[in-house]
Amino acid sequence: MKKTVWISAVFSLLFLLGAEEQAVWQLGKQTFSPEGTGINAANGTVELNGTNAFTIPVSVLGDQKDYTIEFEIKRDPRADGRDRDHLIWMDFSDPEKRTGIRLRYYPPSYNAIWLHLNDGRIEYRNFLPDAKRFYRYTFVVKDRKLQVFRDGLLLILADTVKPSGKPIRFGEVKKQAVKPYQLRNLKIYKEAIFPKGFDPNVSRMRTCTGDQYTIQRADVKDPSLPRILVVGDSISMGYRSYITKHFEGKAYVDYWVGGTWFGKDAVKGENSDPKRGWRGVFSHGPYDVVSWNAMTLHMWNLNQAWRCPEESLEPNMMEMTAFLQKNFPKTKFIWVRCTPVRNNQPDGTPVLENPANDRVVKYNRIVDGVMKKRGIPEVDLYAIAVSRMGTVRKGWADTVHWDGATYQLFADAIIRELEKALAEQSRKK
Known about the structure:
Blueprint: H1 2-18, E1 25-26, E2 33-36, E3 45-48, E4 51-56, E5 67-75, E6 87-91, E7 101-106, E8 112-117, E9 120-125, E10 135-142, E11 145-150, E12 153-160, E13 168-173, E14 181-189, E15 206-210, E16 213-217, E17 227-232, H2 234-246, E18 252-257, H3 273-282, E19 289-292, H4 296-299, H5 310-327, E20 332-336, E21 343-344, E22 350-351, H6 355-374, E23 378-379, H7 381-387, H8 404-428
Parallel strand pairs: 17-18, 17-19, 19-20, 20-23
Antiparallel strand pairs: 1-14, 2-4, 3-14, 4-13, 5-10, 5-14, 6-7, 6-13, 7-8, 8-9, 10-11, 11-12, 15-16, 16-18, 21-22
């Protein structure tokens, strides 16, 4: 009897140490509620084509503190985006309560997902690189925080997922059919199961979303160190890593790629979109210094002129700078001037003589006046870029971005101003 109990205990221990966690729900093995037509999961695979979907109770996620949702999916190679073959893959969001997750995929040429999380949205491009194969996606929630993996590789490290009472729906019933997606090996666990080799204890930047913003936030281990926020467009994506590397161990650097649009009357009122965005971002602070370039290449683009009419630029910037200085008086703001828009001559030589760049020059000058009135220092990336025109290769189709050496120069100029601001902040403490 004792021997039997001992053997049973050993096998139980071995199971706990080495056995795989058991899925609480698995496609093809547990029941679900079909919607629309053509749902058949007898072989563990379903085809989602915009005319069908299926739901399962959200109770399979337990208390929604720790859980894992994993599936494999493949897109139709004919889906090219032109016939809007986008589809919600997974949805248990509650828009009214701003909770849960909604995952929508847009096929090529966009080839991106919009991950709606609570009241924010994360965009990730090149989500299904190859139409010829299945990709395994794993959504791991640990302590209510979300991580998204593709074939075991971390793609998104997100913030808290608020529990939702809505059922989990896979697929979407639309007015028209779309090119089909093949969904298989869908499994749900009540535990947070990370892919092999992933260490959740390593410090990483986390994507945090909210009303009118999505930021990447550093993992703060030492609250005594200062904090920096870099706000910008795709140009900032070229130089921000140099800033982080420079301040490693000396300050934490967060990123806000976006900074909201400034269309006509867009900033009016205390509840305007830009102001809600800034308040949301600063809820992740406080920040000692902010370098700021709010999507100017997009706002000042001739093809997107509606985003920032010339007559509204100065009053909008005056209002926003006043709002920032009033609401965040302990933060030092630095304005980053917009970089040029190039065009290529017939032989491919890059030049700056074009209407789009004329608009950039004019708008830079308008904002210069605002920053001077507000006492906000500037970093002149435009001048640095002009000095680098001789390094731009002939015929480069991308007329707004720059090479790595130029981005390093951009970062160096911003770092100098950031260090001056941090030194000033330190003297005040």
